[in-house]
UniProtKB/TrEMBL annotation:
Principal cellular location given in the protein's record: membrane
Keyword ATP-binding: no
Subcellular location(s) per record: Cell membrane; Cell projection, Axon; Cell projection, Dendrite
Protein name: CD166 antigen homolog isoform X3
TM helices/strands, residue ranges: 495-517
Gene, per the UniProt record: LOC106581141
Signal sequence, renumbered to the chain: 1-20
Record keywords, A-Z: Adaptive immunity, Cell adhesion, Cell membrane, Cell projection, Disulfide bond, Glycoprotein, Immunity, Immunoglobulin domain, Membrane, Repeat, Signal, Transmembrane, Transmembrane helix
GO cellular component, one term: dendrite
Keyword Glycoprotein: yes
Organism, as annotated: Salmo salar
Amino acid sequence: MHFSSCLCTLLVALVYQVSAMDTVIGLYGETVEVPCNNGAPKPKDLFITKWKYDNGDLLTQLKDQDASVIATDKYKDRVSMAENSSLLIAKASLKDEKTFTCMVVAGADISEYPVKLLIHKAPTRVEITALATELEIGKPTQLGQCSAPDANPAANITWFKNKKHLVADGKGIIISSKVNVDEVTGLTTTSSTLQYTAEKGDTDALFTCGALNALSSPVSFTVTYPTERVSLHVISKGPLMEGDNVTLKCKADGNPLPTSFNFHIQRKVVKVENSDSYTVTDVTRDSTGEYKCSIIDNAKMEDSKNITINYLDMSLSPSGKVMKSAGESLALNLQTDASGELRVSWTKDNGKLDKMPKFDKLTYSDSGKYEVVVTMGALIKKASFELVIEAEEAMLLLAGIPVIRRLAKQRGEDGQHKVLTCEAEGSPKPTVAWSVNGTSADESPYVNGKISHKLTIVPTVNLTVVCTVSNELGQDTRAINVSTCSSDDSDTTKLVVGVIVGLLLATVVVGLAYWLYMKKSKQGSWKTGEKEDGSTEESKKLEEKIEEKLEENSQKVEV
């Protein structure tokens, strides 16, 4: 009796305090922690801590003792107390959304800390169902339905197009939503329907919907719209030429694309199904004109292109092999017909000519092969003729017969070899042959009926070399003596010795003449009785001249 009266007296003396309510959000299915006194440290004079809710007590804990579960309902096996006196509720559900109170007895105070628990759950998934098969421009169509099941609170669904938020405007964008609650779990399923009026730019657009931090997979739709424009394209790698194949391609901007077209080919209509192309084969200059294409179900939806076929015609007269006599004239006739600007070039025996040749009076030098090339863009036409100049009737057999004009030799720069040169004329072009083999054979271009051929040899003995020139009309031959390089040196020595001997003989002859002259002069003076002074003076002059001549000859001999 004494203890009971003391406890009653103690309780009466306690001061009772209630704090403002806090709110805690827990996750569905997880263990929820509800803090006591907002997680404040335990008071030093703590006596007892107790958790309770509207329907009864859950558990208590005396100072320095373990917590005791006193609940007998659904919380019996789900509640516990943390070290900091927080209430732990396992496997939280929506039925746990209520107010829990932590009561703390410390000293002479009793404090209560109520906490409101809310349970949240994100939707299990976010997905778009009931998709439209296609969207037609300008026509309101239910694009799809977005659902966010098993959520708490109910999910708020947002629609996006290419990651941009779609806002309902009551016209092109209409969004309607509804929420269903599961009777067992209390979780909600939100459904949102999007009615959308498509535009041409919505082709390949990506639509998504989202709730909280979850997004659906993106979806796209086929946007259909009628053809508004047709374009005709000419497929070609370059300017069109006669003989080419021309492919016409008709493109339309409708969706789905038209599969059949009408091609208007030179006033004829060709229907093409399951293709947008038509090929005109082996075109000619007559194919030049206007071409059109149109869609089959709307002939007014068309496009056209003007096509030009390039062509080049050329004829040259004469052609082939032309035989003419020297002195005659030859008229050339070049005719061209083309669709554009031309370039004309002439060559003779592959050598470029400045202009079209003119033959008023033919000579042997006019012989040769003439070619004309006419070009227009990528088109090229060629024609040629070979001109052969013949002699007049009396000289027919000699016309164009090759003749050697010059056969010469000279020592090479190194003194060890000799270079032979054979120059000839004739038409057609003569061939040159030598009677010996050599090196570095060099033939000049055949120009104006003339040709020159050089041959380098190293003779080891004195020999005679023959040059032969020939063509289909005849041949000509010449020979030249060629000595060895050492023989040339011996010949030079013999020449020098001969010069010296000749000069010596000349000196002897001059001396003999002088002696005879002096003898005759003395005899004359004696007979006539003339003084010898004048003759002596003349003799001295003559002697001086002879001495000068002798000295000059002597110098030549020394050289």
